[in-house]
Give the backbone structure.
Amino acid sequence: MTPQNQDTQQLMTVTLQGLQGDVTTLAPQANDLIEQWNKVLGEGYDTRDDVADELYQLKRVLAEGRIAQIASSLHTLCKLTRRAADTADEDTAAQLRQLADTLDDASARIAQSR
């Protein structure tokens, strides 16, 4: 495994752990995670503009504390992640599907909390 793949694995793990916990307390850590994902996606991955745009949108609504929009953005990222899993290699696809499920769950929990 290359150092970049190890970094991505660690980022995936930290992201999943954060999303599986109390997502309402994730906001302080979210900006850092979003910046890390933007960096990873920009380094040799098949980056889609819509993912980068949605990460920026999530960062903005997190800063503003707009709960409904946070849930919507997480749901959109879930759909984009599932789409990315369809074209990824087997190992990466499994992790992306897990991330998509976790994003969807976090979105639902936030939507129910309002």
About this structure: The CA atoms of residues 78 and 100 lie 4 Å apart. The mean pLDDT is 82. Residues 29-113 form one domain.
